[in-house]
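User: My instructor asked us to take a sequence, write out its structure as tokens, and then describe one feature of it. I'm not sure where to start. Here is the sequence I was given:
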Amino acid sequence: MRKFSFILGYSILLIASVTKAQTNTVYFLVATVWDCRPCGSYVLPLSKPEDIAQARQLILATPTNGNGKIVGARIAAGKDGINRDYLAPGCPEWSWHVTEFNRFADGSIEILDGSPRLVERDVDWWIRNTGGLIGFWAYGVVRELGPEPICLTLQTNASGLHFTWHGVSTNYVYTLESIDS
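Assistant: Let's start with the prediction itself. The structure tokens for your sequence are:
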């Protein structure tokens, strides 16, 4: 009985620590530092307080001041429900996602340069040829998405207004308002 209690207690502690680690993740949007919506954007999950603080500082600093840094990260194939192109209509989900943040860097080797769309064309090829690393030269952290990114797409047609929501949680209240103008 004592062994069972220990295992049960350890399991609860493990679940609590995993849940705690997941709630400390803050998501950031990585995109080109100039306005280039066709280039694509992707989501960078950060959990370490020092990385989160640096990402927030980079958002405040403009690349023209010499403070722009590219994101060095490791990716894996597969959708994770978070990594999307938040700058594209409908916020399409990528078939790859960031699994590990390495660092903010001044540069990377040329083979790591590219774009989210280039990775999407052939994820397996990218991972095989780069070891699963990315370091897109023209990209940087541009926006904080918070702990639970949400994408809302609105489309109007003859039958009315159509809403598409991604990342909506049941723990919040959302209000949609409309005015005629």
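For the description part of your assignment, you could build on this observation: The mean pLDDT is 79. Try explaining in your own words what that tells you about the chain.
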